[in-house]
Design brief:
2 domains; two-stranded antiparallel sheet; alpha+beta; four-stranded antiparallel beta sheet; single chain
Length: about 180
């Protein structure tokens, strides 16, 4: 039983493949409360977080940072307890001896919806900034930019062999945001 005084060392946990040989995310964590550490291809710690459903969090992080999500270490707990979750998260970060980039200056890239407007091409930016277009056209342009970025993300995940269904929230695309449904 995990408690505030009985925190497993990150090094003591087994690595779990982010995407298994069947192209699926680790389904054993669906609906599980816990703390997780995400590692890149060469097993360098990228992010430590906690969630009421670690599986859903894995999906969100994968679409936001597909090139940095290759390995996981997970500690689940029975009941939600923010104090214990935060203690485990802090202990793992301390054990790493340096703050993972995903928990520092790049935290927003790991935890917030993707703002596709920041990824506009020069042509898209010129069309968007055109003073002759109205707000309705801008919304349509923004949706198209979000769809392009979504297609690029899905293509990267397909190359990684992902078979798990990924669905973005269509309502957010009008704002240029990509987040899972």
């Amino acid at each position: 039983m995990i408690s505030e005084t009985n925190i497993p060392a990150l090094a003591s946990l087994e690595y779990v493949a982010y995407i298994d040989k069947n192209g699926e995310l680790p389904a054993q964590f669906q609906g599980q409360i816990g703390v997780y550490a995400i590692f890149d291809q060469v097993k360098v710690l990228q992010f430590v977080g906690y969630s009421r459903d670690v599986y859903l969090s894995f999906k969100q992080h994968l679409v936001r940072q597909p090139e940095k999500c290759y390995w996981l270490k997970v500690q689940t707990i029975e009941r939600p307890n923010r104090t214990i979750l935060e203690k485990i998260e802090n202990a793992w970060i301390a054990e790493n001896a340096s703050l993972p980039l995903g928990n520092g200056e790049n935290k927003e890239q790991w935890t917030s919806p993707i703002n596709s407007k920041t990824l506009m091409t020069t042509e898209e930016q010129a069309n968007y900034d055109n003073p002759l277009i109205d707000d309705l056209v801008k919304i349509k342009l923004t949706k198209n930019i979000a769809r392009r970025v979504e297609a690029e993300i899905l293509a990267v995940l397909e190359l990684r062999g992902l078979k798990t269904q990924i669905r973005f929230n269509p309502k957010l695309k009008e704002e240029g945001l990509l987040d899972l449904k």
